[in-house]
User: Fold these one by one.
Assistant:
Number 1:
Amino acid sequence: MKPIPLNAETEQIARSLVWFEPPEQALADPVRFMAYAMARATHEQMRTIRRYVTDAEFRQALDNAPPGIIDSRSWAYWNSKLGRYPAPPLPSRRFG
């Protein structure tokens, strides 16, 4: 997945969604950033993000989403929006 550019729009969104780290760091990992966006972005924020992320990249973000970020409702919604029904299992943490 190509990086999401840092500009005034994406910086503001990154500050809002991934408030605990600098926007540059949040956007440096686009798959992780997209996981936060799928779980927390408003409709307007997602419209802005979608200008930078293709459907193929969105699917890639879903396929590689880190466990524990996306809730089950958001997971089902975004998979459905991208033509994946039923949604595959949520990413899960693996120990040992």
Number 2:
Amino acid sequence: MMNKTIAIFGGTQELTYKKIGKNYDLKVLFHNGKCRNGGNKKEFRNIIKKADCVVMMIGALGHVSMDIVKELCKEYDKEMIFHKGRGASGAIQACLPYVNTLAAA
């Protein structure tokens, strides 16, 4: 499989996400989703632009951040996946069907 990039927003397990991503030959970009005075749009945009697929950790991401991520995913036509659990492997596995179709294309 080609090396694909996924972005994960929300949670705190950055190293775990990256480690598990590596097992699937995926590069993982991470942002905890915490808003500092709402000035995250630029940071979010940089991450989303580089990603093939974006995962939002529903239980670990505030509404403001979620709205910004949704808006940017639409703007850049990126696949959005909402993940209800907090588990790192579940978040990454949620992306696999989509990423695998990209690799096959």
Number 3:
Amino acid sequence: MGHRDPDMVREGDAQHCAGEAPDMRALLKANARYRHIIGNTPAIIYSSVPSGDFRLTFVSENASRVLGYEPQEMLDDPNFWFNHIHPDDTANIFSSLAMLFVEDQKIYEYRFRASDGHYLWMHDTLRLIRDAAGTPLEVIGLMTDISGRKELEDALQRQTEEQGKLIEQLGMAQAQLMQSEKLASIGQLAAGVAHEINNPIGFVAANLNTLGNYVATLLEGIKLYQCVVGGALPASLAQAELQGFERRADLQYLSQDVTELLSESNEGLQRVKNIVQSLKDFSRTGESNWQMADLHRGLDSTLNIANNELKYKVSVVKQYGELPMIRCLASELNQVFMNLLVNAAQAISDKGVVTLRTERVGQRVAISISDTGHGIAPEHINRIFEPFFTTKPVGSGTGLGLSLSYGIIKKHGGDIRVSSAPGRGTTFRIELPIDPAGTPNQEGTTGEAS
């Protein structure tokens, strides 16, 4: 090769340096810019070796702002990352960290100890970087402080738990209100039930007194016949005594009356038994589970209990269709029937008719209770299912009967509707699924004026 002119060499070098200098300055400027951006991001960016203890090889400068540690301090300790994870969270991380080499990415949420000793919740995304041959080179991580979010989640969790307790308390309160309303209904009808029981008990007691007298007469006759048969009386005297006894005892009438008294007494006791059974059917004591029940039996038992409320001014017409047994809480449905029947009776001022209709509609059953009473005013019809709303005078109603009835029907997955007009009476129509477990709960219209 030939020698080069030194001046030419110096000039060429100068041109070369002059050409390279702007590129270096741009590189330094870009590097400073990147460090500024990384150092001021909300997340800590770091890298670590892809094996062993995951020793940190780079930590962004904002670690000092977020955690209180200088990046160099974190780099100097080969176990820094593991040693600062909360003990309760390490097991979950250690058990799955190996999957990073299979999935190439893992996301964790764990508590990390800051320099002041308290723990911060961190959201950490680990990404495995490989070379062109697939060999792991390093792990890049992105740690974000989510302590604020966790506090909100904890607050929401506590609020949810408190709401759950409140809902449970409201459920208990509703159950107590329903029981109170049931007791109020029973209390309201107690005098009538007592009257219904007293009537048969009264004539059964009177019949037993008469039967006691008849028994005494018959025992007297038996003794007389024993004396005659035994020869204790002379034949002439015995005949006169027997004729006298037959005239006093009037055995033909006694025989007929005893039969009638026994029949009446049996009928009266059967009436008492029916009332007691109706009370048991109405309350379904001890039955708190969903069971298959006959709605006609529930309606009849409720009618027996409410009979004294109805019989003096209401004619009850039954138009029962063919109904299958349905799965329900029978005592609660009986409470609904009681509320509607009592309301129907109270809506009739003098004389009227209450009609009970039942029918099957596909996979549902329908029960209608209609009265010929004074009806419901249009301005009230959309409010009748509101708790504590009542049009009755103060002290005459709690305003809970229809509200609780609405809740019971909805719990069964059914609908309850009302149609009414002043002076034309009211009809409540209830529709219930045969099996609520297989029927989605459907929203029903609470009222519609006819």
Number 4:
Amino acid sequence: MSFLHTLKQKLRSLVPVSRTYMDNKLKELEKANKRQEKLLTELQKNILPAQEMKDYIANEFRRRDDWAKRAIQVQKEASDRQIWVIKCPAPEGEKKIRWGDYAYAVALKRYLDRMGMYTIIDLHEDWDCEVNADVVLVLRGREFYRPDRRNTKCTYIMWNISHPEMVTEEEYKLYDIICVGSLHYAKELQQKLDIPVYPLLQCTDTELFYPDPAAEKNRGGDYLFIGNSRGVARPCVLWAAREKLPLKIWGAGWKAMLGPDKTMVQEVFIENSQIPALYRSARVTLNDHWKDMLDYQFVNNRIFDALACGLPVISDCCDELREIFPDAVLYYSNKEEFDQCVKEIETHYDDVKARVDAQWPMIKEKYSFEARARELVEIVTREKG
């Protein structure tokens, strides 16, 4: 006999109230008890074991001791070069390669270094490490960073590449220069802020994503989708699954959502370096954006990656994306338009492919990390006089 059942019997014999009233009160007590048990379970999951906690604290002390040493070493190695620090929101360790922001930071560093900068990538755990930098560039996605004004010589730049709805005007004002991944939104911010605002759209690594005529000969009939489910029903994926298109998915959270179509899921993750080979072997890729990115006219980098590899794209759209690629991308805003995009791929593939191939010179010139590194250096030079 359970404790609550025994308590119920005792209370009924002692307290002169109706049976219904007493049952309701005991049900409330039972629910509260279950809520407390659930809360305790969650707390236990999030509390580190004693030894793990000790190791974590010891590691943090070592990290902060290393920051001071690193600052001196950086000054020595940089010599007379400008020191640029890229604040990347990805976590340290093996997890970092699962973040698109990390591949983004690595590509940008390569080109800044070639332009004569001494460039450092600070992962999220090291965001508080300062090395007397000349420029700190924050890749603003989901994580907030406060510029350290103790370094009076430093120019602080925010490059807002995603999640624009999370950034307030007050946060923008903390910086010296603002770059945003949308021409339309940059114009809007220029009217609101007293600090310099520049449009700086997302881009692609043209040393990784580029046309490969030899690989083109082996293109198959696969439809691709690369991205996690985010715990929501991303329409283009569900439409493709419902229509039994030859879809292959790389991303987490899809198997439970797709049910019998879960065989479409190849892996829950794919490294950025492996994506070009997929793009050069497939027929088309599906694409969509976070809602706020469409609302603020931000174009995601997967568009540029795929087109650079000569892969047609079926995507949701905003005005800015249509202005960049008026006819090289197939656009949908509902199921009927999505079906029309699929029909276009299946009946006029050569025409679609020709329009895609024609974009490579423009992508290489205007939407590469090389172009973005050059623009950033020019912006800093202009603003610092």
